[in-house]
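Tokens as discussed.
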């Protein structure tokens, strides 16, 4: 997928961040240079101090040189502490960014199915409850669609389980491409998929299910593998709040019941037609 460039409104901020980063690096380089020079001066001063004793300086000059040396040591120590502080800040920032990336990766793994890229069973149930509460609070309709791949066992029998996995992955992409951005598509388990359609009545939900069913039934080239012996399609069951159920659990149960009623009318490999009612 082509990487998108940042929005034009964000470019000044990115430019400022780049300038600040460059300035920070320049300052760090300057501090390191001064630290090294100061360290060399302190070393040479200590060397001269230890070798000369009272022979090079008068007692008063010797005391002044001692004070100057102490000041040089203090400056050098301050520069070293400053540089160490900057290094610690940079290390903490890098560690924080690493933890943020790791946390985001873990969140993605926790709520997405690794095979299809869709949301997983846990995410589906968590959001079904929250979407149901929102629909009930604001008086909106909410629909759930359950999808099941017909004769999926034949795919595994004819082509093997690896091809079956490729097929499920491809189905996941097809489903994701045929729902709205506000909808929640999930792999419910095995060869079953589930959709949460917020603010969607029964008729619109059945249209969505029919569109996905038609896209799947017309597909024959699954990821480069031509499935000529399996008339693959999906069955679907639809339920809508508040017409069919008054709780999230009842809504899911009704969609599941409609799905299994639909599978009883699933077409044979020689035919595909069945009525597009509430149960398909």
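Sequence:
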């Amino acid at each position: 997928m082509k990487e998108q460039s940042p929005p034009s409104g964000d470019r000044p901020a990115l430019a400022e961040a780049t300038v600040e980063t460059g300035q920070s690096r320049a300052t760090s380089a300057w501090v390191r240079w001064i630290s090294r020079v100061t360290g060399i001066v302190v070393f040479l001063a200590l060397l001269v101090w230890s070798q000369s004793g009272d022979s090079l300086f008068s007692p008063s000059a010797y005391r002044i040189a001692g004070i100057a040396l102490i000041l040089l040591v203090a400056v050098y120590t301050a520069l070293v502490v400053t540089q160490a502080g900057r290094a610690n800040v940079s290390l903490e920032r890098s560690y924080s960014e690493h933890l943020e990336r790791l946390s985001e990766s873990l969140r993605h793994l926790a709520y997405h199915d690794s095979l299809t890229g869709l949301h997983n069973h846990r995410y589906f149930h968590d959001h079904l409850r929250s979407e149901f509460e929102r629909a009930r609070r604001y008086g909106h309709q909410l629909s759930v669609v359950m999808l099941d791949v017909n004769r999926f066992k034949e795919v595994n029998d004819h082509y093997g389980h690896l091809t079956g996995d490729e097929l499920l992955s491809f189905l996941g992409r097809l489903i994701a491409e045929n729902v709205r951005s506000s909808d929640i598509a999930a792999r419910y388990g095995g060869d079953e998929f589930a959709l949460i359609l917020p603010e969607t009545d029964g008729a619109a939900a059945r249209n969505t299910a029919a569109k996905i069913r038609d896209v799947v039934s017309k597909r024959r080239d699954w990821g480069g593998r031509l499935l000529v012996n399996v008339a693959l399609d999906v069955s679907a069951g639809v339920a809508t709040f508040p017409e069919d159920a008054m709780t999230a659990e009842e809504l899911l149960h009704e969609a599941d019941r409609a799905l299994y009623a639909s599978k009883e009318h699933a077409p044979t490999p020689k035919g595909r037609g069945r009525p597009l009612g509430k149960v398909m």
